[in-house]
Give the backbone structure.
Amino acid sequence: MSIAKAIEAFTAKFADSIIATLTCFDRVMFKGYLPFSDDAHLNAFVDRVVGIPRKDFIPQLDRMSDTLVEHAQAMAEAAGAPYQYIQGKHRKEDIVDKIAQERRHPEGLLAVLCCLETCRSIKQRGGQGKPVLVFSPRQHRVLYFYFLDPEFGRMSIRIQTWFPFTVQVYVNGHEWLARQMLRRRVGFVQRDNAFTDLDNPRKAQQIADGFPGLRWQQHLERWAKLVNPLLKQTPWLAGMEHYWVIDQAELSTDVIFRSREALHPLFQRLVNYAIVTFSARDIFTFLGRRWHPNFQGEVGTDYKDRWPGARVKHRVKSNWLKMYDKFGQILRVETVINQPQEFKVRRRRRRGGERKMVWCPMNKGIANFYQYAAQATAANARYLEALSVVADPGPAYQEVEKLVQSRRIGERSYAGFNPARKDDVRLFQAVLQGEHHLHGFRNADIRDLYFGPTCLPEERRRQSAAIGRKLKRLHVRGLLRKTPHSRRWYVTAIGQSFLSAIVRLYYHGLAAAA
């Protein structure tokens, strides 16, 4: 089944409740590495390109670190943005959110945060004849630049102030898509990183599909040079470009429902089904892998009940497949790729002296961005297809509401039923007896099943009156019908399916009622 048809299998089943669907990248993190691969390469670079003794290289890096911090402070001052040095554990996004609300700045630099972190850097160790520079974790200052970019919206750039000056760029595909739709006059309603309504879902999807094909090398290098003046000021760094990889990518498929009331009962059913039904083999299939008994790694499902909804996360090693609701109106299925090597893609490779198309592990280079999109979209589609077997509980919940509430006809009121009350469930069981399907049933049939046989005439009359009132309460709700000019009752088609579901739910729980 194609990806489009797999998603359609889900949306077609609940078409009356769905406004639109949208598959779009959400959070994407890129990392840029300058071309220093290992210890031997680093020492040869210092000896031959930089041309200074190795013992003098570390003091130079101290001055370079100060240069990067001073540059960040100057950028913040020029933009009128705050520069903050933070210590301890802080959620940086909360700090920047507060700054953005206070400043109301339309575009440009929002804030610069500086903190101490332990990252891959270099240290000096003793060696034979002269010291040796080695890559090693080191605590040093790290700068976070937060921008409101005219094309990409809210984004951030992180740079280590110590060699090798690794850069990390964070962008959000929904932020980018919102600005593209504004330029092309495509109407939408946005809330946080999601769209609750789209005037033209097809056009929005076409625009979103173009996100992986942007000129990422140019964008990323431009941002790196913006925060790292050393790439221009330092002779031995001048002209260098980064090797850019995708460090993490999240691609979401949003199914936008008409209202919270339309999604809520279905979402609870989907969560229960996913937790109970999906096995490790299923999770492998969703993420495009074949199950192998010798697999070395962790596979699992995690459920979290959180406000305002719930979240189910399936995991194979460091790759995730999540389902949750946003704002109670959007069903979001999201694939998060941290280990692209777990996915197989077709590549042209030399095999036996010939170039052939073969299956290879997907790598992190930005040239594979379109492969990330294809693999994650397929994973989301397979997951939604698997969920399409779940029945829509919406009509049943509406019937429950009618069953529970009292019903008034003319001047007479008919009390409701309680699906959790054993006596009421026993009544439903009695009218659903198999022998009643063909010829229906009379009051006496239900009386004997409900109360048991009795020889006392007065007791039979009292019980018959009670059963008559109960049958009338079912009749006014459309769950029973009476044959004209007779005493026989029949369960309607709606009553058959609805009352059966209540009985199964009472005795066997949600799994049986699904």
The first strand starts at residue 18 and ends at 33. The chain has a mean pLDDT of 86. The CA atoms of residues 456 and 462 lie 10 Å apart.
